[in-house]
Amino acid sequence: MLWIEGGKKQHLHRGLKTMKTTNISHERLSHGDLKRRFPMFRLPDDCEGVLEHEGYDMYASRCLHALQVYFILSLVLSLKPMILLSPFPSFSQT
User: Fold this and answer.
1) Residue 19: in which H helix or E strand, if any?
2) pLDDT tens column, 50-92
3) How many helices (H) and strands (E) does the chain have?
4) How many domains does the chain contain in total?
5) Are 49 and 80 within one domain?
6) Residue 93 DSSP symbol
7) Same domain, 25 and 47
8) Burial class of residue 76 (count of CB atoms within 10 Å of its CB; 0-12, 13-18, 19+)
């Protein structure tokens, strides 16, 4: 699994700390590393990444279903709307 974050990288640093503490195999990637290994991504200059070697597969259909269920339940139960977190300001929603 590839984690990418820019800005203050708070989530990335927390994830790294957890991976080190729990001995999860990972590799920290600088912006240059990300550009070389994943040239298909256009990333801001302040992004760094972590490649988790023992990551897991996420099935798009299951993820979409979970979002649909959450959306319907949020309408019925008046839950707070989900916030999309993104390292890219243009993609973030508040």
Assistant:
1) helix 10-21
2) 988 876 666 777 778 888 887 787 777 766 555 544 444 444 4
3) 3, 3
4) 2
5) no
6) -
7) yes
8) exposed
Tens-digit pLDDT profile for residues 6-63: 888 888 888 888 888 988 889 999 999 999 999 998 888 999 999 888 766 667 777 7
43 with 75, same domain: the answer is: no
Expressed as residue numbers, the domain containing 2 is 1-56
39/75 same-domain check: no
Tokens of 69: 């269920």
Answer yes or no: do 2 and 23 share one domain: yes
Total number of residues shown for the chain? 94
pTM value? 0.55
CB-based contact 57:48 (threshold 8 Å): no
Q: Answer yes or no: are the C-beta atoms of 74 and 81 closer than 8 Å.
A: yes
